[in-house]
Write a structure and sequence with these properties.
The structure is a single chain. This protein is mostly beta strands and 117 residues long. Helix content is 0%, strand content 49%. It is built from no helices and 7 strands. The strands form 2 sheets. A 4-stranded antiparallel β-sheet has the order 1-2-5-4, with no helix packed on it. Strand 4 and strand 5 form a beta hairpin. The termini are far apart.
């Protein structure tokens, strides 16, 4: 007889790590950022992950970011001169081979106001 495994469980995103996680110097350039995702699934050993949304504060506009691939983007190294810095928030989603979408996970990339600690 044949045993068929039916996967109804969504993958679980354990972590999303941007590289780099901080953009310096704030020189208005678009900086490539890669995202490493740790994800587990009950059946699929390698769920497909991709960026689904990017937003930013501190005056960020939609032309300050561009999704460049499943797990890559360009973010503008910019912030307001009188603010505390800019934070980009990136949403990632993973889908297993059975089409079960996970809840999204968030990560951030920061453009600091200055380099003081």
């Amino acid at each position: 007889f044949v045993v068929t495994v039916v996967d109804t469980t969504a993958p679980v995103i354990r972590s999303v790590t941007p590289n780099p996680s901080e953009l310096w110097a704030p020189n208005h350039t678009m900086v490539p950022v890669q995202f490493a995702v740790t994800v587990v699934d009950a059946v699929d050993p390698a769920p497909a992950c991709h960026l689904i949304r990017i937003s930013g504060d501190d005056g960020a506009m939609s032309n300050d970011w561009q999704i460049a691939g499943d797990l890559s983007a360009y973010l503008r190294a910019e912030r307001r001169g009188n603010g505390s810095g800019r934070t980009y928030t990136i949403d990632v989603q993973c889908v297993d081979g059975s089409g079960n979408a996970s809840a999204t996970a968030l990560t951030t990339v920061f453009v600091p106001h200055d380099q003081r600690k």
